[in-house]
Amino acid sequence: MHWIDYCIVVIYLVAIVAYGIYLERHASEGIDAYFLGNRNLPWWVLGSSGMASNIDLSGTMIISALIYALGTKGFFIEIRGGIVLIMPFLMTFMGKWNRRATVMTMAEWMHFRFGNGKEGDIARIVSAVASLIFAISSISYFAVGGGKFFGNLISIDDKIASISLISLATVYTVASGFYGVVWTDFFQGLLILVAILYICFLSMQIVDIPETFSVSISGTEQLQTWNFSEWSRILPPLQVELPGNYAIFNFFGAVIFFYLLKTVMEGCSGTGGYMVQRYFAAKNEREVGLLSLFWIFLLSFRWPMVTGLALLGIHYGATKQVITDPELILPTTIAEYVPLGMKGLLVACFVAAAMSTFTSIINSSAAYWVKDIYQAYLRPQASNEQLIFQSRLASVAIVVLGLLLSFNITNVNDIWGWLTLGLGAGLAVPLLLRWYWWRFNGYGFAIGTLAGTIAAILSKAIILPAINNPQIQEYILFLVPSLSSLLGCILGTMFTAPTDRSTLENFYNVTRPFGFWGIISRDLPGNVRAKIWRENRRDIQATAIAVPWQLVMFLMGMMFVMKQWDKFGVLFLIFLLLSIALYFVWFRHLER
To answer: Mean per-residue pLDDT for 385-405?
Structure first.
């Protein structure tokens, strides 16, 4: 980069850190302010903050690589996590279910569901520890991607680049807490939108894709030749023939079904970390729906951007040389196609994407230590100053542990697959059962979570290295942790006493979930049961509409940048019909 570009990046970094430190006075009011912003932040700020946190740098590099190598097939692969397809579930029912508990963390929620006794305590502690493990692993994943991008652009070691980025993000996160995270995310989200619009414009202006072209597939020197119509098809094939690391996707229809099943399971189980934190922080249920809708809309802009980057990567390969590592498409295309000045701004935009994700994970995960371990069990009488100090100390500790873990990781997609399939599946089963089965108790949750977490770690460390078939590895990584977790949940539940009846009744009356709650709901008045059933039925119908609605919206942006106007027209018509249905089934019924 030119010195002018460096100046732009430095000015951005100084400004964002200074603004975060300026917000320190809001965070010091107490841990409700430090972790939830006193539940007084507007829905559009929470939604834009969620978008900025989801558009992480590592994920953008992976998705760009997948689209570059596979076209729209890469889009369908990212049903595993990159599309964030749990958002429709949060929008239609899971977000409001979480908000009704009025808690600070998912671990604290365990007392709401399983009571304040020994059963609830065990579930709370295990949930907090598992969430911290997931957060530290996520920090390492984002550190690898951020270092790979920033280090490649400014020609420094990847590890030095990642340490620099995360250190800056940590400074203002530790100082300003959730206020700093959300408001800096809002302004960083504006920067990210600038990057998206510019890349889309640049791609549509420069790139004219030939009917056939060749790309590099990750993990092999062999080139893959595509026909453009096949590369841009909007319906996924049942089978493909891919070499190298991507051979795991060759039974494509089965892979997509598998990812959809996993996503539905995760969507119905809810989520943790920084995503659920924004729902706990919402003012009310109506704003939960509005922030979700805005969040999904803003996320849709990511897909034309990664498509534009992929097209620029193909153009670079056709006119200069094929990019041998698809994960380096982002820095390569910026270095090649973006002019002086604008290059610095775009780098600042992508640094913003990295830092917004770092800060969200750091702040939300520190709450598990402070609220669910330190204050709950170690120092119940801790003063406000002590809690704020512990919040900042925990933030720094999580960052240090995540960075140490990242030093042994070189492939971004490798750790992403383990997080979404292995560890994510191990945690998803107990999170699913807690909503829908009245008999499920805190002991079952604790044993299932521990079994799933241990199985995910052992699968990664021992089982997968012993299996040479990459297609089987993907399924093993999901099935071993999830089945281990399910077995632990059932055994832990059935060999221990049920949760206290009054606790279950309170949970059901407040949350009003669907599922196997007949033994609890039968004592309610008939008109109350009928009202809950109507709400549940609308929520299920709305979710069935919202999932394809989001997929079609995201695909529309991709077809627009590819200039596939006939496919864009078909998708737009489907999107319009689904939007009308969603309005009548869901939007007009939002609580006022």
So the answer is: 86
